[in-house]
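Our consortium's second objective concerns turning raw sequence data into structural hypotheses that experimental partners can test. To show how far this objective has progressed, the report includes one record in full. It was chosen at random from the queue rather than selected for favorable results. The single chain below, 158 residues long, was entered without modification.
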Amino acid sequence: MNKNTICLWFDRDAEEAAKFYAATFPDSEVTAVRKAPSDFPSGKKGDVLTVEFTVCGIPCLGLNGGPTFPQTEAFSFQIATEDQEETDRYWNAIVGNGGAESACGWCKDKWGLNWQIAPRVLTEAMAAGGEEAQRAFEAMMTMQKIDVAKIEAARRGG
């Protein structure tokens, strides 16, 4: 058992979400599905209560806790990508599976969980600081999905 695990509250679709994440991201898998031993506030005995899974190596627990606590942007997974192809692949998987686009590299999956699809070129530009970071930041502020070529051009001053 892990010392620290991220617990994500789902209405009732933790298993479906975990399977999607495992199929979409590398180093991700569903490791256990646990059923409720008796009735609980949002379900019945035998319903899926928790799902143990990893997302890019990060241990998670999906809890089917009901509609009381929906996901918010206060929590998100940030996925570092190497190029436009990888950025597009993850973005399109999330948005194309009932999710929604947001701004500045953020999107939301159909279960309400937020994702930052962040090309390394952007995080490197921000780490560089100064005018380079400012140009990259200003370019990013105009985007939904990050356009790697535009960030690279901004870094160069173009």
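The partners drew two points from this record. The first strand starts at residue 6 and ends at 10. The chain has a mean pLDDT of 97. Both points have been shared with the crystallography group to help prioritize constructs.
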